[in-house]
Amino acid sequence: MGKSLFWKGVLYGALAGGALSLLDKSTRDTVFDNCRKTSSNVGYYLKHPSEAVNQVKDVSNKVKTAIDQVSEDVAFITGTVEEIREMAPEVTQIVQNTKQAFSDIKLQGSSEQPEKSADDSVQIPH
C-alpha cells in the first residue's frame, strides 16, 4: 500500500511542477509550440506510414554500418598491437646489435682493435 502511495505522490508532484512551470509565459509558449509541431508530425506520419518505416530503416542501417566500422577498427588495432608485441624482442636485439656495432666502430677509430666474438655480428630479421 505504501508503494502505490509513493508513485501516486511522484505523479502528483510531477503534474504540480509541470503546471507551475506553465505560469512562465516563455515556457508556456515553448511548450505549446512544441506540442503543435509534434501533433503535425504525428499527423503526417499517420498519413504516410511508409515514410516513417523508411526513416527507421535508414537510421538502423546507419547504426549497423557504424557498428561494423567500429568492429573493423577494433580488430585492426588489436592485430597491430599483437604484431608490435611479437616484434618487440626482435627490435630489442637489433638495437643492441646496432649499439655494439657503433661501439666497435668507435673503438676502431681510436686505433684500438676490439676483440670480436662470434656473438658480435649484426643480424637482420627477415
Write structural notes for this entry.
With 126 residues, this protein is mainly α. It is 83% helix and 0% strand. It is elongated, with a radius of gyration of 36 Å. It starts with a helix and ends in a 17-residue tail after the last helix.
Instruction: Note the beta-strand portion.
Output: under 5%
Low-confidence stretches: none
Approximate helicity band: over 70%
Outline type = elongated
Q: What is the element string, with H for helices and E for strands?
A: HHH
Mean pLDDT: 85
**Helix and strand composition category:** mainly alpha
Distance between the termini: 77 Å
Counting DSSP E segments of at least 2 residues, the number of strands comes to 0
So how many helices? Answer: 3
Oligomeric organization of the protein chains: single chain
| Largest sheet properties | none
Radius of gyration: 36 Å
What key phrases describe this protein's structure?
mainly alpha; 3 helices; elongated; 126 residues; 83% helix
Give a short overview:
The chain has 3 helices and no strands.
List the helices and strands and how they pair.
Elements: H1 2-21, H2 25-47, H3 49-109
Helix pairs in contact: 2-3
